[in-house]
């Protein structure tokens, strides 16, 4: 039995798990249309690799991962690509983003990839990248990157995160109850990939059925290095750093990751998806989504990625009469959904329909009374009230000095604030402003360097030209006969003009000899059209030629003044 | 009495000599204020301030020749930061100057005749091309200075404002609901 540690702070919001965790995971019938966003993961969006009108099969890659932090996306079913365009997506901004729209053909024909035989590590990582694996706990970080330790890194411990501390959400709970074997198999695959010696599975003790299912699966698998660890129910136990501390007592350094203390954390849903990708060759095209709150039949659904959220709510019996809005994610960290037409992406773990009974409108914010309740509730031991003052006053440097970027945006401070101040909203605002400013500053620095180099280059070119003129001025005095035709121009300009004239004459001759053969035998109107285009082109060329000649004259005139 | 005067004079001369030597030895060549002002300016090199680039404008500010409110790309925030840096009162943007949304220049490829005039005008060398070859603007190097627009003989360059997308979107400043004072509304 592993000794447990208690991280600072944390809150006990009402968990509301019973609404949705009693029924098994249900499948959704095939829908006529799926909308797959190109950007479902952290990092760069995928690059579409199909065109409009193309027929695709279920599981076919439709968006290729870009280099760096990116993951692939796949067709959820067979059908035809009807559009690649900006559509509403599940994003706090409510903005539209590029999506691939697939009209289902009803056959649901899928690419069947035979389970691969023995593969080496690199091939497996590439396969996971092309299978579109991304963390399913909510942060959607591409999985293949988390599986590749640096050369100086050593991760002896793998933690599977089944804490699911956020209220209302039960998708991991149901997955652990129903597919414990596959999750543990996935955990062993991850263990082999990162070279971990031990696996800990952290599950909050409000999920006894899931713990029992995992324990029985661990016993039958007869692996000794895996232990199922019930952890106390305390929000935010499901944060990677908090769970690591609870299970090992290791504190992640400020600004660091759990890998800095030798621990890699994966969500149980990711382990399940990884097991399917490696053992069955199935890309990530569906995930478990909890639909709960003010719907008639709350529960968990195995949903194809790209399913419109409106269809999912309809499948859960539709909204109750007093429902008024929809949250993506839970009540602590989730965000309001702008449009029900947005599709389910890899990031969507819960659709929470709000009603007045459970989600009364937020009370108006009152001034901060410096009670310090937020600091006591903060699981990262920050001082949210200090950061709030500076973020509110747009003093981002000061806010950063209070370790703003260690904030995990868990919402504990919002939950306990007696003045109902939306603290996390201030922190998100400050963080995004700081990022934007850093990007602007980088761009300005790049521009400054480029501009300075350009000034240097122009100066150098001027010097080179002057040196050339000085060198050319000497032979002019010696050979005075050559520029007789143009007595007042300097030899450089005359020489250039002569070369230009010779080249033009050559080109004219060459043009005369080569008559374009592709215009022969064309109808009358086509020939007319071509001649019109030719005349337009000639006039344009003439205007450019004039401007260049004019410029050259202007350039050469100061040179004349210098040369005598 | 005389001893004391002599000793104090000697100490004074010695310290003076050290200070004099240090002033020569550790002379600061560049104006540190200039660098600081230049770091605040947006480096668009657009010349809207009337100076031929951000650095000349920074020099003019440092010398006290130019006002701090002449930089439209920097906007009110830039003026605010300059005011904080220089310890003066911020003021509104100068007359005739208007802040514009950030934009990048795009070349219409079907109209471009390859005259290289825009390449010569670009202050950050963000345009790629050669004589009689189509030109293209490297969008992430473009500062949106609009200096390439006037020289183009065929008007094939236009500015496109950067649209907000999910990658560049920023969380808004939290808005507070204003609570009416009870009883006030009835009056």
Short synopsis of the structure:
The complex is a heterodimer of chains A (564) and B (187). With 564 residues, chain A is an alpha/beta fold.
Verbal overview:
Chain A has 564 residues and is of the alpha/beta class. Chain A folds into 3 domains: 312 residues, Rossmann fold (3-Layer(aba) Sandwich), CATH 3.40.50.11540; 114 residues, no CATH class; 26 residues. Chain A contains 15 helices and 17 strands. Chain A has a 6-stranded mixed β-sheet with strand order 1-14-13-17-15-16, sandwiched between helices. A 4-stranded antiparallel β-sheet of chain A has the order 2-8-7-4, with no helix packed on it. By secondary structure, chain B is mainly alpha-helical. Among the domains of chain B are: 55 residues, Electron transport complex subunit B, putative Fe-S cluster (3-methyladenine DNA Glycosylase II, Chain A, domain 3); 67 residues, Alpha-Beta Plaits (2-Layer Sandwich). Chain B contains 5 helices and 4 strands. A two-stranded antiparallel ribbon of chain B has the order 1-4. Chain B has a two-stranded antiparallel sheet with strand order 2-3. In chain B, a hairpin with a 7-residue loop joins β2 and β3. The mean pLDDT of chain B is 87. At the A-B interface, α13 and α15 of A face loops of B.
Shape of chain B: elongated
End-to-end separation of chain B in angstroms reads 86 Å
* Biggest contact: A-B, 37 and 35 residues
| Distance linking N and C termini of chain A | 97 Å
Poorly predicted runs of chain A: 482-487, 558-564
Note the beta-strand portion of chain B.
5-15%
Number of spatially distinct domains of chain A: 3
Structural class of chain B: mainly alpha
**CATH architecture verdict of the domain at 101-167 in chain B:** 2-Layer Sandwich
Helix run count of chain A: 15
Largest sheet descriptor of chain A? 6 strands, mixed
Q: Pairing-aware structural class of the strands and helices of chain A?
A: alpha/beta
Rg from alpha-carbon coordinates of chain B: 27 Å
Supply the CATH superfamily name of the largest domain in chain A.
NADH-ubiquinone oxidoreductase 51kDa subunit
- Total beta strand runs of chain A: 17
| Helix fraction of chain B by DSSP (H/I, runs of at least 4) | 25-40%
